[in-house]
Write a structure and sequence with these properties.
Length: 378
């Protein structure tokens, strides 16, 4: 066997930092991939870290990042902590020369995101972002149809992402309720939306955003005392793409809707629709419909070559494994991947500008990513 082939077979030791989404998705996803092995788990509560490590046959449990990074077998780190912890943790990982897989939103602001991007480049670190919709079968088929010119010249794009995860006013107050900690529907859902708009349709030239908070107070878990919520739970956005196409986006975490996630693209030659009514799993359940001009919408079957090799009960794991696959391949090649921190910077830029638009009640121009990402003065 050649050295190159031997290298491709090497197991990559990964530490999982964050045990909410990390426990539900990152650990099972990394353990399911043939090229990754979970070496350590981090939680600021050492006893909790030890319990999770024991339950999942993970050799090391840590409550300090420096201890995680000292473990010789740890070559890479996945981070799924709340957004306000991402920047410092990711910076520490990159400076230690470990490869990085980071949850979205990548940071609290685009300045931090851009710094991480450049730091990863200068340290030869392969940094991936878990924008998993790029790896979902229905979405990949939708992208193929758009690329083939199915709709012709685009005239209108509509996105509705309507969830009920925070519709219950009795759900406890936590970091999600605080804007300054990265909480809100824009961060949790809009970060994905901005990434897939970029992927499917290209860059944005300007935007207009309005945010509301339907549930302005939530009870503290320990006392039941009501605390103020200052993060958004509903976002209304208008975008104009660089090719002139208008895009209308409605995002909410506090509504009970049957059409949970829907994208409609209208062109001069046809219409494409991607949608899911699955309230329990935001990855599974997507279907694609199409119609050429003057014809009724009809479902188009997703090709077998795009479907998941293994359909995990939790669809997030199935999509995450594909993210890991891209990450592993990029580590092998020592080449940048999509989606990387570059895509994370663009998503964060659009979120920052959306907040600016909401605060000023005005349209905001969006710089081109290729110019912005290397501009230290913006």
């Amino acid at each position: 066997m050649t050295a190159a082939l031997e290298s491709q077979q090497e197991i990559i030791g990964v530490a999982v930092v964050g045990t909410g989404f990390g426990k539900k998705v990152h650990i099972p996803g990394l353990q399911a991939h043939p090229r990754t092995k979970v070496i350590a788990v981090y939680n600021r509560d050492l006893e909790k870290a030890k319990k999770i490590a024991t339950e999942n046959q993970i050799p090391h449990a840590c409550d300090r990042m420096e201890d995680v990074l000292k473990i010789p077998e740890v070559q890479a780190v996945s981070i799924s902590t709340p957004p306000f912890l991402h920047y410092e943790m990711a910076k520490t990982v990159i400076q230690a020369g470990k490869h990085l897989l980071l949850e979205k939103p990548v940071t609290l602001n685009v300045k931090e995101a851009k710094e991480l991007h450049h730091l990863a480049q200068s340290n030869s670190v392969i940094a991936a972002v878990d924008f998993e919709f790029r790896f979902v079968p229905g979405w990949q088929f939708f992208a193929e149809l758009l690329k083939s010119g199915y709709v012709g010249n685009k005239r209108l794009i509509k996105v509705d992402w309507l969830g009920s995860s925070r519709a219950n006013p009795e759900r406890a107050w936590n970091w999600y309720s605080r804007k300054d900690l990265g909480g809100g529907a824009l961060g949790s859902l809009g970060s994905h939306t901005f990434d897939y708009i970029h992927w499917l349709f290209g860059e944005v030239s300007r935007l207009n955003a309005r945010f509301t908070t339907a549930i302005p107070q939530r009870p503290e878990a320990s006392t039941g005392k009501l605390k103020v919520v200052n993060s958004d739970d509903t976002c209304m956005l208008m975008l104009e793409l660089t090719d002139g196409t208008p895009c209308q986006i409605s995002i909410s975490a506090v509504v009970r809707a049957s059409r949970t996630h829907w994208i409609e693209v209208y062109g001069d030659e046809g219409t494409l629709v991607l949608g899911s009514e699955n309230q329990k799993d935001y990855i599974h359940g997507f279907h694609v419909w199409g119609a050429k001009q003057g014809k009724p919408l009809a479902e188009i079957e997703i090709p077998n070559h795009l479907t998941f090799k293994k359909n995990h009960a939790d669809g997030r794991i199935s999509a995450f494994i594909r993210v890991v696959e891209q990450w592993v391949n990029a580590i092998d090649r020592r080449e940048p991947l999509i989606s990387s921190l570059r895509e994370g910077v663009y998503s964060q830029l659009l979120m920052d500008l959306s907040h600016q638009s909401n605060n000023t009640l005005s349209w905001v121009n969006v710089p081109q990513l290729s110019e912005y990402i290397d501009d230290t003065f913006y």
